[in-house]
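Lab notebook, page 48
Experiment: co-folding of the full assembly
Goal: obtain a model of how the components sit together before planning crosslinking
Operator: M.T.
Materials (sequences as entered):
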Amino acid sequence: MGRSPCCEKAHTNKGAWTKEEDLKLISYIKAHGEGCWRSLPKAAGLLRCGKSCRLRWINYLRPDLKRGNFTEEEDELIIKLHGLLGNKWSLIAGRLPGRTDNEIKNYWNTHIKRKLLSRGIDPQTHGPINGGATAAFAAPHPSETAAPKASATDSCDETNSSGGSQDDDRDGYLDLNLALSISLPHRSPKRSQPSEPLTSAATSSSPQAICLCCHLGFQSSEACSCHTTQNPHVLRVIRRLEEAQH
DNA sequence: AATGTATGCAACCGCGACGAA
DNA sequence: ATTCGTCGCGGTTGCATACAT
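Observation: model returned without errors.
Model output:
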């Protein structure tokens, strides 16, 4: 039972994008918006698969991209977020306006890993390279657990009652806005209908609408800004966390 | 100047999640 | 409840460039 290919590979270009292809993609999206990626290439006159178009747009052509070097503040933010979220590059990117998950992932692998190693910090555990001492950013590492999404929430609910070193662990995050009101970069209309009831549920009526920082026990801190978010995607993330718990 | 090696980045691949039928 | 199509994510690859010898 094989999976059908995402596109007709025999008639698609691969590899680096040409200026002409870029222009076609940009002008099409400017005119029609980010619609269905699968049909976009044909409509735009591109011999590319939809995935390739999406990637090119998100990682390179989007007008709101920053480009350029990462600042020291961005470095530190990425390190902290990675300590909390693990290799969830899209979530990390959501906290860094103008940066893409791919860019951050590359930057992590080429720069920050080395930076941490030079500090004597293990880039995966965020703890000291030698010795099993408590990690510098000791939030449960999603990539190290069997159920990453559940672990993030479990760490909140369970450690709140069990105490432990949670308070110590939080110290590294207190200056972070962890209301993962992740401004997921451009969702397709199909998946983020403005008319979806999620918005209102997230902001007012639903008791389920609790931001991740609340889940992590930060609701009494300045880090929590769930009450300010209007982003329906917040609830999407939260809902998944909720589901993972049950 | 030529060659080898390291580095950085763009792009691809495979898989899981999700919604619609 | 199941299947199918699509999207998005994370890991990996491969090319271009920089740097060293």
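Interpretation: Chain A has three domains: 12-61, 68-143, 145-246.
Next step: discuss with group before ordering constructs.
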